[in-house]
Design brief:
The complex is a heterodimer of chains A (115) and B (110).
Chain A: E1 5-7, E2 10-13, E3 19-24, E4 31-37, E5 43-50, E6 65-69, E7 75-79, E8 88-95, E9 105-106, E10 110-114
Parallel strand pairs in A: 2-10
Antiparallel strand pairs in A: 1-3, 3-7, 4-5, 4-8, 6-7, 8-9, 8-10
Chain B: E1 4-6, E2 11-14, E3 19-25, E4 33-38, E5 45-49, E6 55-57, E7 60-65, E8 70-75, E9 84-91, E10 98-100, E11 104-109
Parallel strand pairs in B: 2-11
Antiparallel strand pairs in B: 1-3, 3-8, 4-5, 4-9, 6-7, 7-8, 9-10, 9-11
The chains are: A mainly beta (115), B mainly beta (110).
């Protein structure tokens, strides 16, 4: 379909390993967001890309987390040296808005479990 | 103080009831306000935007009070299918950065 695509849908890893989560936004959407949601909790903002502007990284919880967006399209969220508290669903969303805020379209998320 | 705060509930109401949720936000410069709906183990989806003059979409009414920095969602004639978590979303200042509240859980009973 033409929605936001995330992979993998599920990832189980051992503590200390690195993981990469991928997000393919809706074609033509200039804004891309990463959030994470722990069980029973709300969405925690991680990072926001808008066009060619410098990303807003203010929500990244530690320097183990990083994200890139190549060519204004696909984004990768990387977590280095994973810890058990990193276990959560990582949600990616894209938006058509050029400025300000518009409707977010979410992917189905990547569920990360760190053993 | 959290940037966006909601009462997590749960709100348990009978079918046909009217229920209202409030949400407060801390940044007085915020410009964009939304309500999203999230079903269990699903991704959030936009329910409605919130406009300064208030707006209605069928059984749902959203209102904004800038002076007190809160938004509200009113659901009339609740249906079983309204059972979900309702997320308040506010942007930071005049940016596209969107902050979600922790959500309010609604359970509509027969």
């Amino acid at each position: 379909g033409a929605g936001v695509s995330q992979s993998p849908s599920n990832k189980v890893t051992e503590k200390g390993k690195d993981v990469e989560l991928r997000c393919d936004p809706i074609s033509g959407h200039t804004a891309l967001y990463w959030y994470r949601q722990s069980l029973g909790q709300g969405l925690e903002f991680l990072i926001y890309f808008q066009g060619n502007s410098a990303p807003d990284k203010s929500g990244l919880p530690s320097d183990r987390f990083s994200a890139e967006r190549t060519g204004g399209s696909v984004s990768t969220l990387t977590i280095q040296r994973t810890q058990q508290e990193d276990s959560a669903v990582y949600l990616c969303a894209s938006s058509l808005a050029w400025t300000g805020a518009g409707e977010l379209f979410f992917g189905e998320g990547s569920r990360l479990t760190v053993l | 103080r959290k940037e966006v705060e909601q009462d997590p509930g749960p709100f348990n109401v009978p079918e046909g009831a009217t229920v209202a949720f409030n949400c407060t936000y801390s940044n007085s410069a915020s410009q964009s306000f939304f309500w999203y709906r999230q079903d269990c183990r699903k991704e959030p989806k936009l329910l409605m935007s919130v406009y300064s003059s208030g707006n209605e979409d069928g059984r749902f009414t959203a209102q904004l009070n800038r002076a007190s920095q809160y938004i509200s969602l009113l659901i009339r004639d609740s249906k079983l299918s309204d059972s979900a978590t309702y997320l308040c979303v506010v942007n930071v200042g005049n940016t596209g950065k969107l902050i979600f509240g922790q959500g309010t859980t609604l359970q509509v009973k027969p």
